[in-house]
Structures are given as C-alpha cells and as structure tokens.
Amino acid sequence: MTTPTATAPLARPRRAARARVFAHLAFHNVVRNARRSALTAAAMSLGLAFLVIARAISDGAHESWIASGVRMGTGHVAVQAPGFQRSRSLADRLSAPQVAAAESALAAPDVAREVAAVSPRLTLSGLASSAASALPVRIEGVVPASEAQFSALPGSRVRGAWLTPDDRLGAYVGDALARRLRLGVGSRFVLTAQGADTQIAGQLARVAGTFHTGVPALDEGLVYLPLATAQSWLSAPGAVTSVAVLLLSSRATERVARTLRPALPDGLAVLTWQEAAPELDSAIRIDDYGGYIFMFILLAIVALAILNAVLMSVLNRNREFGVLQALGLTKRETGTVVLLEGLMLTAASGVLGMGLGFGITWLFWRDGLDLTLFMKEGITVSNAVASPIIVPEFRLSQVVLSLTLTVLIGVLASLYPARQAGRIDVAEAMKFDR
Amino acid sequence: MNTTNDVAVSTRDLWKTYPQEPEPVHAVRGVSLDVARGDFVAMAGPSGSGKTTLLNLLGGLTRATSGSIAVAGHELSALGDRALATLRLERIGFVFQAYNLLPVLTALENAEFTLLLRGVPAEERRRRVEALFKEIGLEGLEQRRPGKLSGGQQQRVAVARAVVGEPALVLADEPTANLDSAASAALLSVMERLNHEHGTTFIFATHDPRVMERAHRLIRLVDGAVESDVRQDPHATEAPGVA
User: Fold this and answer.
1) Residue A16's closest chain B neighbor by CA?
2) What is the distance between the alpha carbons of residues A242 and A221, in angstroms, rounded to a whole number?
3) pTM of the full structure
4) What is the DSSP code string of A73-121?
5) In this structure, are residues A246 and A70 in contact, taking their beta carbons and an 8 Å threshold?
6) How many CA atoms lie within 13 A of A96 on its CB side?
C-alpha cells in the first residue's frame, strides 16, 4: 500500500461511477424502510390509479357527449355558407353546385376514410300551427335515408315512423311539441316560414312519427321534413344550408376540417363541432377544468405524502449524510441520493398506480360503467344527452400527462428533503451522543 | 508553510470560534503543529478541550475561523466545497467513535465505498478489500450488514474503509471508546500494523490511556490550545504522557 504523492492535484472521479453508487444507495435506503416505503407507495399508487380512472371516465363521458351532440346537431364537421352560423337565415344557403363541390371534397380518399355519414340539411326557423296552438320551431329538411344513418333522432322514436322518401308531407316531431300542439300520428298541422324569395309561405304537414331525446330544446321545438318538400316549399330548389359530416372518431375533427378547407371553393366555410356548437365545447372545457382542479388537489396530496415520507427519512439520517460527506460526497451529491430515493419511490408508485388504474378501467372498457342507478335517463349537456353508461376512454395525451405530473411531483416533493440532506452541518451531525 | 511530501498535515495559528451569547466560544486557540507522514499521533485532553473540533478541522469537515491547515500539501482554506470533498475522498480516511457504517451496505460494500466513489474497477476493489479483511481478521464477514457485526468488528470495517483508499491521513475520533479491552487492543494492533507496514499516518482524538500509550507522539490539549507535545516510545512500560 502506498500513499498518493502528497501534492498530487485533486481530480474529481468519473461521474458515471458515482451515479451508480448513488442509485445503489438510494435503492437500498428505499428498501430499508420497507413498511414506510410500501405505505407511501400505496398512497401514491392509489392516488394515481384514481386519477387514471377518473380521467378515463371523464374522457369517456365527454366522448359520449360529443357523440350525442354531433348526432343531434351539426355533425363533427359542417360545410355551410360563411354567414349562416350567425344569421341562421336562408339567405346564407349553399347552391346546388356548392353542395356538389362539398360532396366531391368529402369523397376524396384522405377524407372519405374518416367519414361515417353525410347529411345535407336545410335548416330554418318557423312556426308550427295546429288547431290547438302555434309554437316557434326549428325546421330541418333532410334526406330521410342519409339522416337515418347520421342522426340519433330516428332511433329515438316514441310513436309512428321515421320519414320515408315517398311520404312528401310526412313530419317527424318532438313528442313535447306534439303534445303542446295536441297532435297525434297522422294529425295535420301547418308550418310557416320565410322562403328564399323572402315571402312568408306555409306548408301543410302530417305527423309521421314523434321522438323523445330528453333534450327539451329538441323535444319541444324540432320538426323534420323531407328535404325535397322543404326546398319546394321555400322556393330553394337544390339548396341546403349545411352539409353535416359525421366522422368515425371525434379525434379526426380538426384533421378533416384542415384537409377540407383548402379543397373547397371560396364561399364555403368549414366549421368543427366546437365552432358549430360552442356551448357543448364550453361544457366539456368547464368539466375538464373541474377535472384538472381535482387532479391538482389529488396530486398535491400525493406530493405531500412523498414529501412526508422522504423528509421523515432524511430527518432520521443526519449522521448518515454526515458520513457520506466525510467519505467524500459533496453536498449536492448527498442531496442527489435523497432525490433518487424520492424518484425511485415515485417511479415504483407510478408504474403500480398506472397498472392499477388501467387494470380497473379495462374492466369497464367493453360494457361501460353503468350509472343507471344514479341517473335513469342520462343527463342533458347543452344539446346532447350524456349516456348513463360511460365507456372509459384512454388518451395517449392523458397517459403522458399523468406520467409527467407523477415524475414532476416526485422531483418537486423530493427537492426540499434533498436540499435539507445536503445542508447539514457535518461536524454537528457526526457528534456522538455522549 | 511546509508542504513537502514528508508532512501529512500542518497547521499554523489555527482558531475555531463559535459565536455564542454572552461570549464567543474558542474551541481551538492558535494551534500550530506539523505531523509527519507515517506518524502515529494521539491528541488527548479532557472533554471540551477541542480534540474533536481540531480533528474536524484537519479533516475539512468544518472550516477554521482563522489560521491555515494543509493536508497532503493542499491548503484547505483555498479549497471550495467540491474540492474539499475530493480531498476527503482521496487523501483522508475517517474512523468515528460510533463506527458510522452505512447500514444498508454489507461489510464489504462499506469497506470499498470510497473506492466505488473513485471509480476503481470491481476486480481491483475486491482484491484490495479482501486482502485487507484477511489482514485485519474480518475474513468471512464480507456479506454481513453492520447490524450483524459486533462493535469491534464494525470498528475494524470502519478502519478498513478508512485505509483501503491509501489516504495520506487517517483521523480517528475516539475509535476505542465503545469497545471492550480485548476489542480495543485488537483494533489498536490492526492500526499499528497498518501504520508500520503501509506507512499510513494516524491521528487519534482519545481519552483512552491504551491509545495514548501506543502513540508515537502525544499532544495534550487544554481549552483548545496545545499544552504539551511530546514524542514517546510506545514500547516503554510507562508512557510519559499518561496522567
């Protein structure tokens, strides 16, 4: 054994070798207090699992709102005249060539593969009158076969039947509207509205069927007519106010809208469902914000759990940190050991929590989470009906967010204890209790 | 200041003062000394005489209020925290009264800890630690954790940890205080042998007359100052420094 040359320069050894030592120490320190580490990890894992489940259910519910909203409204994407969203007037309608251009753009392969159904519509406001009463209504002129593929309303029939192409006067009305106008299946009533020529015109209609959605605005104020009848009545042959597009997935909305916009001639606007139904978008955003606040509170609790566990462990180990520094660790390296302990605890809890969260959510993936015990009919959100059976949905962005936040809180919650460990007075920590 | 290779540690007019009310406490008062490489030095004195504080100053565990300390030619006051940590890692070994082994590591891992930090290859580490364990009677205990070792065995592991990196200086604070007579004698023999055979410099802070008897040089501290500093023959029947 030979002592190094006394005045040889001091050179810090390789970092990689030291990092392995720190990781080794940190791992053994986590394992050393197995019960405390297990309890902390359990608290963190449950918190994270709950977070994963809550986000998956929330995203699933939102997807259900969107699916319902778009099928009862304008679809995921709507092609219409630029002013129609504000005016809701026949003056802002699409001509037959514009409709043909829109349908051609929708048939392009990169769009068509995302499309589930397309429904041209002539939408206007009018008055429905019967012998009993007269009430303001929204009138939708639709192609019965296209709309049946698109909308949820034909499936919400209470009495009678959905529209058929050969029943020119047939009307499909909300059940509450029918009650208020005292109409039954086969009853006649008159629709009045301003036509394309700006003249007020009336149209006789006969109730073919009634529907019930649970959305008051639809049940009390919506009337469906065959598109051809509406065009003829309103002196607007070949015209529609929008071409509604239902996509296979709401996630494709922005992509399809972006592809369609440059493919359409001037004078046509492409609206996403968020633009066409801003109230539904707002409802989802508000619900999301609530979810994020809840997530923040939960993560704060998890962070405190880690902080408590790591800090407790640090406060009991002053002498150990003194030894580490006496043996040649810097203050920062001593803190690094503690930081690694927190990160290891976080990583283990993260994996366990994610696994638990995904596992539990997976149980409800196929058949959905049935909440009919708490809400028989589903709740109304904007012009959508939230189904009482929620199918959870995983989004990669949410998984990444949950993982990132978990790592972040692990780091943040371990920083303070790590700093404390590095700041100890070594001489004081090494004092023997005489 | 003498920074030649013959001097392991050197201090000049070293002071350590703790600001306290109503009066500051001077734990070390103007200590100047040189310890040659390969020396076996005991610092004795009553409790509160400044032995441990002086040891901490020499080991760079605490900063001096004034004066200078050079260890292995490096002036400690000129070193930043990082360089000081490197100096401790490469040039100084510590043996503490309470053993202070890392409880999560085995005896072997504790002993090789500084080598690990220095990035010494595994084969070389094991070779050195196993040779040392054999030399100091720890053979067969490599995989035991500190909790499964006796006090004497733990302290021998601590000594192994202190010397395995071949430091310029080993500072031992009351290394025998928690050991019975037999364990103390065995430990001192180990350290004497390491000093004799490898030329390792030892400085002890001690109350233990057995340590004082076997030291080559005995420094007595009173109220933080050097009261006496005598070189002695450790083989004499009665040590001159023992009260």
Assistant:
1) B119
2) 19
3) 0.72
4) TTBSEEEE-TTHHHH--TTS-B-HHHHHHHHHHHTSHHHHTTEEEEEEE
5) yes
6) 6
Nearest to B166 among A3, A319, A432 (CB): A3
User: Looking at beta carbons, which residues of chain B come within 8 Å of A4?
Assistant: 72, 90-91, 166, 168
Phi, psi at B220, each rounded to 5°: -105, 130
Phi, psi angle pair for B189, to nearest 5°: -60, -45
Q: First vs last Cα of chain B: how many Å apart?
A: 33
User: Which residues 20-39 on chain B approach chain A with CB closer than 8 angstroms?
Assistant: 37
Mean pLDDT, range A184-212, rounded to an integer: 94
What distance in Å separates the CA atoms of residue B90 and residue B73, rounded to the nearest whole number? 13
Element (H, E) at B211: helix B209-214
CB-based contact B61 A325, cutoff 8 Å: yes
CB atoms within 10 A of CB A372: 11
- Whether residue A226 contacts residue A170, with contact meaning beta carbons closer than 8 Å, is answered with yes
Cα-trace Rg, chain B? 18
| Nearest Cα to Cα of residue A121 among A79, A166, A177 | A79
Q: Using a CB–CB cutoff of 8 Å, tell me whether B174 touches chain A.
A: yes
At residue B171, φ and ψ (nearest 5 deg) are -105, 125
Domain boundaries, chain A: 15-67+282-429, 75-276
Name every chain A residue with its beta carbon within 8 A of the beta carbon of B97.
Answer: 432
Asked if residues B145 and B107 have their Cβ atoms less than 8 Å apart, the reply is yes
Listed in sequence order, the residues at least 6 apart from A404 whose beta carbon sits closer than 8 Å to its beta carbon are none
Q: What is the pLDDT of residue B113?
A: 93
Give the separation between CA A411 and CA A306, rounded to whole angstroms: 10
Span between the terminal Cα atoms of chain A, in Å: 35
Residues of B whose CB is below 8 A from A323: 96, 100, 102
Which amino acid would we find at residue A52? V
CB contact set of A137 (below 8 Å; sequence gap of 6+)? A125, A126, A127, A128, A177, A191, A221, A222, A223
Q: What is the complex's ipTM, to 2 decimals?
A: 0.89
Give, for all 243 residues of chain B, the pLDDT tens digit: 444 568 999 999 999 999 988 889 999 999 999 999 999 999 999 988 999 999 999 999 999 999 999 998 899 999 999 999 999 999 999 998 888 999 889 999 999 999 999 889 999 999 999 988 988 888 899 999 999 999 889 989 999 999 898 898 999 998 888 888 888 888 888 889 889 888 889 999 999 999 999 999 999 999 999 999 999 887 664 444 443
Total residue count of chain A as it appears in this document: 434
Distances, alpha carbon A139 to alpha carbons A41, A144, A177, A279, A426, in Å: 58, 14, 12, 20, 82
User: Can you list the domains of chain B with their CATH numbers?
Assistant: 7-231 (3.40.50.300)
**Measured between CB atoms, does B127 come within 8 Å of chain A?**
no
